[in-house]
Amino acid sequence: MHGFRTLVAVLVLVPATTTFAEEKPGDLPLPNVHHLIDTHIHLFDTRRPNGVPWPPADDKVLYKPHLPEEYSRIAKSAGVTGVVIVEASDRLEDNKWVLDQVAGDPFYVALVGNIDPNRKDFGKLLKRLRKDKRFVGIRARTSTPIDYTHPQVLANFRLLELAGLSLDILANGKGIEGVKEVDVLAASVPQLRIVVDHVLGYDIDGKPPGKEWIDAVASLAKHPNVYCKVSGLYQRCTQQPAPQDPAHYQTVLDPLWQHFGSERLIYGSNWPCTKKSGDYASFVRLVNAYFSAKGQDASERYFWKNAATAYGLSLD
Prior knowledge:
The chain is of the alpha/beta class. 33% of the residues lie in helices and 13% in strands. The N terminus is likely disordered.
């Protein structure tokens, strides 16, 4: 993929066991990597005639237009070289609306769109949408809970599997049961690349996770087709605004690193939700504090190589 640039920055490598209790994101370096792909942002315009299904109108931070011009400016200044948009709307027509907003802009490399996995015409809709090469998969998002064991849902996910596309899953609010739910699904469609968003939906409180959650993560990670986005850390915090001390997140990141390793953890910001706890660059620095400590190869994999594999991106 052309149009990417390499950020020249100072990278401080520290031992893997180091904690960062005295450091703040503003004091930490930005990543020094070949590419930096943000795999999780949302674009929407609350001024549209029919409004938007998300965010809610009473959200004073998010309920305003969040469009490419704003994101491009702040993300490029933080070293981002490419973007995967994740559709935040359950309206089928909004797949095209989002793609139209970034038409002709190589900075926006892909869209994880939305098709209701319960639909019987799922295959027809998928065939139509994937004519645009930027359409790389769907995020399972409906107004009601999805039964991942339902025959129609599984049949539709197998169409994704056959097409070589991906599936994002938002497990927020489901806790351990959400992790177990994906575990069962991953066994049912073993060739489908599944990306579980926002640290598997874990509620971060700064304390070590319990054994049951860690065991569920270990079981899920046994499926080689499952990836975990280390994304949305600010939003997954039980304390709001979220702490910007990297040490607050280490108890969650350590078991994810232990079980998913360097090859299946992926960077995503969850912009514009980041606005509720800090600026965009602060989030990039925060996750870089953890992954730079694992070495240059781990940083390259986290910030772009794993995204290329999970979403089938052509990056040079």
